[in-house]
Amino acid sequence: MGEVDSPFVPGSREIAPANHFGPSKVEIVPQVIFPGFNVIPFGSNDLFSFTGFIYRDVPAFSLAVGDVIAFDLREANDVQTRRTIFFAAANKNPAACVYSPTTGQITNPQGIAAASGWTQVVSETQVPQNAFGDAVLGNFELRYTAEAPFTFAGGGLLVGFRGRPPATFVDSNSAGSITGATCTDPSGHLYARFAHLPDQTTGILDVPGTNTGDGTFIGGMIIFPEGGGGGTTTCAEGVSAARALIDQLLPARPFLRALLNFSLTRVQAGVTNAERNFGLLVDLLLSTRLISSQDAAELKNLVAPC
């Protein structure tokens, strides 16, 4: 639900590993994105009640107050993406999904639930960093600050997002799509997506055919220690660093350097869709193997403050 047509071919674009962001506590990063756009959980909070993702084989970690919880959008929101976010340990670590491409559902439900309840780690009153998100793939620009600790022993991890009501912040339009993948993604950490459930339910989350066993549009997440996440402080710093990296990567390609630098000038000037268009140019260089996936992700990350 919430999908629209997309010009991208399934599996045609990959997201680079996130190690270019620096040290992290957890990296759940989809490797091949699912085509199209979806409003769960960041596009609208008043249509789908309690929503979220089920992850598998997640290593143990301890979330501390001040840590950064980052998500990746592929379409910017039209309002600040303010959400109440919950973490929970699943009652079991899900086995790999069995997925039906026809229905988009998993076909091997395993009775996954938040048997021990949910922990609120972010409140909707918080305005996250890069609050509107962007259309740059793989930069994990939507960054919330943890407001409560959470200790996870490893295995199945649940991330939930409060809908309205009981949420009070209004986000009614469909703009703001997650960068999502199917549960068969090679990353090995994605199991299912859920929606249309009571707030902080402790019931079963993966019942196919009821919007609780979706195997598509499962978003990733990165948790950075406080102050982490890499990137630059300002747009001007990021653009300057991106220009230097472009010179280093493409010394024998003057036309491409000029094109990218012109695009960066528009990004820094705040021209509509300039950052998205810069990202598309970077993706073109990646697809033609002129730059590596890590370099592509670094260029996108450098302009994230813009």
Describe this protein's structure:
The protein has 306 residues and is an alpha+beta fold. The protein has two domains: 1-229; 235-302, no CATH class. It contains four helices and 15 strands. It has a five-stranded antiparallel β-sheet with strand order 8-5-11-2-13, with no helix packed on it. Strands 1-15-4-9 form a four-stranded antiparallel β-sheet, with no helix packed on it. Strand 6 and strand 7 (105-106) form a beta hairpin. Helix 1 runs antiparallel to helix 4, helix 2 (254-268) runs antiparallel to helix 3 (274-287) and helix 3 runs antiparallel to helix 4 (293-302). The radius of gyration is 19 Å and the shape is globular. The protein starts with 25 loop residues before the first strand and ends with a helix.
In short:
The chain is of the alpha+beta class.
What's the structural blueprint in terms of helices and strands?
Elements (H helix, E strand, L loop, with lengths): L25 E3 L21 E9 L2 E3 L4 E4 L13 E5 L9 E2 L4 E2 L12 E4 L19 E4 L4 E3 L2 E7 L18 E2 L8 E8 L20 E2 L1 E4 L10 H15 L4 H15 L5 H14 L5 H10 L4
Antiparallel strand pairs: 1-15, 2-11, 2-13, 3-10, 4-9, 4-15, 5-8, 5-11, 6-7, 12-14
